[in-house]
Amino acid sequence: MRALVPLDGSEDALAVMPAVRRLTEMAPGIEVHLATVLDPQAVRGRTERPAREPLGVAAGTTVVRIPPPRLLESHGEAVTRKATEWRERLEQVAAQELPGAATTVHVEWAHQPAKAIIELANELDVDVIAMATHGRSGLSHLLVGSVTEEVIRDSGRPVLVVRARR
Hints:
Layout: E1 2-6, H1 17-26, E2 31-38, E3 47-48, E4 70-71, H2 75-97, E5 102-109, H3 113-124, E6 128-133, H4 138-144, H5 147-155, E7 159-163
Helix pairs in contact: 3-5
């Protein structure tokens, strides 16, 4: 048996972990795949702002030119760094929340998280997708939508949904 557990880094998303832990107790041989989906356009390279020199006393009009920030990390390097940071974060969640369980971590890059989750679920041929919902309703749900709702609607797989604690 295989389970896919998408996490977005929020405390709300971790609300699903007790249910996943229970799954590992009920099905000891279960493979748990922890995953996150990152938007490559949201990743920025690191920059360094040069130190500003004190202006001192000036007579008359002075023009102060502030040099532009210096790029320390390219977009590609930033993507690699983010992927590494997220792998480590997911491995830490696995160690804390699912000790002893067979876990694998995945970092996916996509503009549409729900589609990426569904594609990964199909690629891994998982039996269940377990995820938390933020529990939005009304106007905020209408404006923001729900990745969980889209996964339920479009995945064609069983989806275990846990409402985040408030």
